[in-house]
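Check these lines:
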Amino acid sequence: MILPLLLSFPLTYYYTHLLFLYYWYYDIGVNAYANSGWLTYFVMPWILVLFNITGFIAQWIARRRGMDKLKATGIGALAMAGLFIASFLYTVINHLDYPSPKDYNLFEFFGYLLRMK
């Protein structure tokens, strides 16, 4: 039952970092300092709590269904990874109408993120 607690910290860090880079790449928000303050002091604590709750509930449900501890831990980790992807895509969809000098294209963003461009 400790994996969701341990996995939530790096997931929260990477989620916030990914969101910051997304905001910076598409020039969303007031400026980088305002975005980093918003992400650090508001988004990070809430997403940390959400990752923990999701992981613990998924693991608890899997254990109640009769799975062994290792499989239940894997289910909890998958639920947390699913929340990571779903929350990032939710943020992307919510910012599609924000005026940006670049066209919104996730392939270009991930190419930039992986330093392919």
The chain has one domain: 3-113. The radius of gyration is 16 Å.
